[in-house]
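hiii, so i know i said id send this last week but things got crazy w the move. better late than never?? heres the sequnce for the chain we talked about at the cafe, plus the structure i predicted for it. fair warning i was half asleep when i ran it
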Amino acid sequence: MSERVYLTRDGYNRLKEELQVLVQETRKEVLEKIAEARSHGDLSENAEYDAAREEQSQTESRIADLENKLASATILDPKQIKTDKVYILTSVELRNLDAPKEIIEYTLVSSEEADSDLGKISVRSPVGRALIGKTAGDKVTIVVPKGELHYEILKIFVK
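okay and structure toks below
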């Protein structure tokens, strides 16, 4: 059985759209590349054919991955997320205890929806793992590759 994948409605729709493009467009394009490469003759020394086959393998692997994620997805409703503790889909406002004027905000999401540019971090990341289950007022030390981060949770909310 596949592990549950927790997604927002938008995240689910993005994965579904990616799957649709891969199945309806990319797969056909790759098959055309293979057919074109085959038409050039000897396949044993045909780099174009090898590259097309590799692309086909990667495409089929991503299709299978997306199908598994979508089949095991649970769509979370932000209206039903509690804010008594840090959970998936909660946003947290943190004070950097090493630079007290620095306030940081993160939203905890599944690995499939993580986007650090948007402040969305995976619950499986070092920061996400350290924050899950904590409450407002808690002080947290997080071990990351560059050393330790020290935060105080100021606020937990849902956007």
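btw The first strand starts at residue 5 and ends at 7. thought thatd interest u
miss u guys!!
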